[in-house]
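Continuing the series of single-chain predictions for the mutant panel. This is the parent chain; the variants come on the following pages.
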Amino acid sequence: MDDLGHKTGALELKHLRCLVAIIDTGSFTDAAHELGISQAAVSRTLTALEGVLGVRLLHRTSRSVAPTPEGVQVLARARILLAGADELVREATIGHTRLHIGHAWSAFGRHTTEFQRRWHEHHPETELRLIRYNSPTGGLAEGRCDLAVVRAPRDLTAWSHALIGHETRHVALASDDPWARRRSIRLDEVLGRTLAIDRRTGTTTLDLWPAHERPAVEYIHDIDDWLAAIATGRCIGLTPQATAAQYRRDGIIYRPLRDAAPVPVHLIWRTHETHPATHTAIALATDLYRRGSRSLRAAVP
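Parent structure:
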């Protein structure tokens, strides 16, 4: 082995960028121009890389440079490593210019479109993405989002959280159900029906009724299963108004449920990883729910 057999120093990204620039531009002079350094610095950087790896990477003549067999292999790996490093930098940067809001079922319900419109209008510097993820935290615990909309009853002490509003409950029915002709349904009437419940992400629990008097239950796994069970007519469902607003399906109708407390809607986030836009999102969502509540009260005769 020649004098390159003595490995010194550590591999750095600048070494790989230098090698790629030399090959892509075809000369040390042009590589120096592209990298914004001197030709001598390019030569030193390449020599350092060859010293770290212990192999000759380039055949050099007065007119051209070409990779050695070892250089071809290193060049291929260098491109992969550099692409990965660049992607890492992009993701880290975009993390502050992109806000992911997760939800298990219905985002902000009937306020979703207005939330998106206002966000794009007033905060164009931060891209908004809504993500549906079937988990109790809407993808927050899984690292899929920065904030999550949650409605299901659960202990929120593990997360930072803010109450943004409340939603009335509705009954979901098959469109040919005998109750479809009614304007509303009482909570105690549900006792005679089979109720579709999603124990993982749904908002309905049997705690709505006394322990000694509860409806029959069919447990399902997600919103699609829930809708399918109701459309067949074998089940009915109880759900926040948000579901009625966002899941209009042929064969299913929604009717208001009387005598039941409204469902609280929270935004939750990781306490030690607060996105810079968190409180802006909370303020906007809270304002939309507040305005919506005023509109509903004004519509009641």
